[in-house]
């Protein structure tokens, strides 16, 4: 309905460079991709601010039907690379999409051994991601292939490529600063945070008590012994015999004095 209107830009892009075709390819909406590609005012090979094209997103997320549609066109670069140096083949290898790998490798314009900014080839991405099933496809010799990650100088030492998590961390660092996520697929919600502990005075008191504290102390209720108030009466009970003895002696002295006098 919107595409039938004359006042709708079918190839508009947001501040991140994503067009309707980018979203449709990244989310796997094959029907929408076909409708958009039928229009002459839609760039089928537009790149966003990350340098990724609709083909890159479709190859990364495993949408074979959309990849096939895009590859059948003559205006789509099947070996384009993003700002990180990764190509559609690199993404398909890293995510283990065998069908997409076969389609890309059948073409003569795709370099099966290209390296990204970290010096990783599609074979390395598949190997490091544990996608063992696609390794035979990538290890087969290709006419276009050439070892770009190796050097002929034996004295030149090439630093080891960073682990896969580092590349993702760098991408997240950039996108978090911009408040975006480059992966168009829905994300799994974060784990539910633990409940906030009750900070009442009683709980604060219990938190500072030793583990071996008696139950009546940790509960804040005094014991039976603590409930007895040792008042003046209990203190007088200890001195009553002495008082009686003194009174008795006083009476005896008085009687003795009276008898003598």
UniProtKB/TrEMBL annotation:
<dbReference type="InterPro" id="IPR002110">
    <property type="entry name" value="Ankyrin_rpt"/>
</dbReference>
<dbReference type="InterPro" id="IPR036770">
    <property type="entry name" value="Ankyrin_rpt-contain_sf"/>
</dbReference>
<feature type="repeat" description="ANK">
    <location>
        <begin position="84"/>
        <end position="108"/>
    </location>
</feature>
<keyword id="KW-0677">Repeat</keyword>
<dbReference type="Pfam" id="PF12796">
    <property type="entry name" value="Ank_2"/>
</dbReference>
<feature type="repeat" description="ANK">
    <location>
        <begin position="50"/>
        <end position="74"/>
    </location>
</feature>
<feature type="repeat" description="ANK">
    <location>
        <begin position="16"/>
        <end position="39"/>
    </location>
</feature>
<keyword id="KW-0040">ANK repeat</keyword>
<protein>
    <submittedName>
        <fullName>Ankyrin repeat-containing domain protein</fullName>
    </submittedName>
</protein>
<feature type="region of interest" description="Disordered">
    <location>
        <begin position="141"/>
        <end position="236"/>
    </location>
</feature>
């Amino acid at each position: 309905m919107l595409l039938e209107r004359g006042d709708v830009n079918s190839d508009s892009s947001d501040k991140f460079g994503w067009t309707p075709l980018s979203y449709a390819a990244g989310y796997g909406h094959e029907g929408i991709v076909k409708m958009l590609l039928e229009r002459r005012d839609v760039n089928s090979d537009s790149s966003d601010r990350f340098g990724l094209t609709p083909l890159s997103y479709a190859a990364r997320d495993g949408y074979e039907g959309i990849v096939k549609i895009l590859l059948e066109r003559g205006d789509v670069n099947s070996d384009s690379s993003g700002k990180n140096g990764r190509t559609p083949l690199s993404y398909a290898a890293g995510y283990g999409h065998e069908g997409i790998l076969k389609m890309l490798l059948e073409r003569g314009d795709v370099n099966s051994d290209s390296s990204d900014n970290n010096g990783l080839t599609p074979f390395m991405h598949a190997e490091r991601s544990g996608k063992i099933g696609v390794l035979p496809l990538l290890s087969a010799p290709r006419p276009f292939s050439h070892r770009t990650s190796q050097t002929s100088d034996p004295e030149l030492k090439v630093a080891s490529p960073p682990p896969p998590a580092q590349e993702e961390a760098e991408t997240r660092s950039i996108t978090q600063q911009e408040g975006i996520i480059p992966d168009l697929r829905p994300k799994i919600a974060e784990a539910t945070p633990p409940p906030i502990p009750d900070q009442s005075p009683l709980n604060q008191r219990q938190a500072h008590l030793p583990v071996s504290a008696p139950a009546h102390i940790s509960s804040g209720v005094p014991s039976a012994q603590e409930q007895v108030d040792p008042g003046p009466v209990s203190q007088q009970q200890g001195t009553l015999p002495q008082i009686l003895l003194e009174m008795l002696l006083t009476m005896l002295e008085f009687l003795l004095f009276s008898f003598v006098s």
